[in-house]
Every structure is written in structure tokens, then in C-alpha cells.
Specification:
It contains 4 helices and 9 strands. By secondary structure, it is of the alpha+beta class. It has one domain. The longest helix has 15 residues.
């Protein structure tokens, strides 16, 4: 279970209430470990150990339930939609201060208690 769900339900509800509907539903599908969920361009597939998130058929994230580890990638699509889906997942796992943001066409990852890192879109573990 996500640390936010276990430790900070009010904060989690605040994050969820400020997300797009599709992203709220995406997170809910992960929480409920639905085997398959699809809405518009976003798909979630859950197995016993992990959830895979797809955008336009490209796997942009993997979340491992036991280790609570999140892996993300942009698959070459540095779009607002990709960034929005990934930010929803990052906030779900790491809390409100974590995010991906863009400055002068470059993307950066900001995680709690870690220095900001430039991110080039390759699959990385956020731990």
C-alpha cells in the first residue's frame, strides 16, 4: 500500500481532489489492483506484484506494490499529458512536494529530501 494511504489520508484526499478525473480513476485502479482498467488514452494493468500504466499504448510507469517502488519513462513523448499522468503517480507515491517539472524545454525530477535532477525521459527508479 502507498505510504500516503497508510500515513496521511487527509493529504492524499487533498491530492486526489486536485487531480484530473482520469488521473483519479487511474490511481483508484492501482489502489484496487484492478486487473485491467482503461479510459480514453490511459490504461492500467495490475498483476499480483505490480501495476503498469500505459499512455497511448506506451508503458510510462511501473509501480511495485511490495517495495512501493515507482519506475517512470516518457517514451519520447515530452507532452503535458505525459507529465500530468506521471505527476499524478509521483504524488500518489511520494507526496505533494514531489513532481516532474519543465524549465526551458528540459524536464526535472524533484523528490522529497533529494536534490533536483534533470531527467532525459529514460526509465528510472524513483527511490
Amino acid at each position: 500500500m502507498c505510504p500516503l494511504l497508510r500515513d496521511s489520508i487527509p493529504y492524499f484526499l487533498y491530492c486526489i481532489n486536485n487531480m484530473r478525473t482520469i488521473e483519479r480513476d487511474m490511481i483508484q485502479a492501482i489502489i484496487e489492483r484492478r486487473p485491467s482498467w482503461t479510459l480514453a488514452n490511459t490504461r492500467v494493468e495490475c498483476s499480483e506484484h505490480s501495476a503498469q500504466v500505459f499512455l497511448h499504448g506506451h508503458r510510462i510507469a511501473s509501480y511495485w506494490f511490495d517495495s512501493m517502488q515507482l519506475f517512470i519513462a516518457d517514451k519520447g513523448w515530452k507532452t503535458r499529458t505525459t507529465k500530468s499522468r506521471l505527476n499524478a503517480l509521483i504524488k500518489f507515491v511520494y507526496g505533494g512536494n514531489a513532481s516532474i517539472y519543465q524549465r526551458q524545454f528540459n524536464w526535472f525530477i524533484k523528490l522529497p529530501n533529494q536534490p533536483v535532477k534533470e531527467w532525459f525521459g529514460d526509465f528510472v527508479s524513483l527511490s
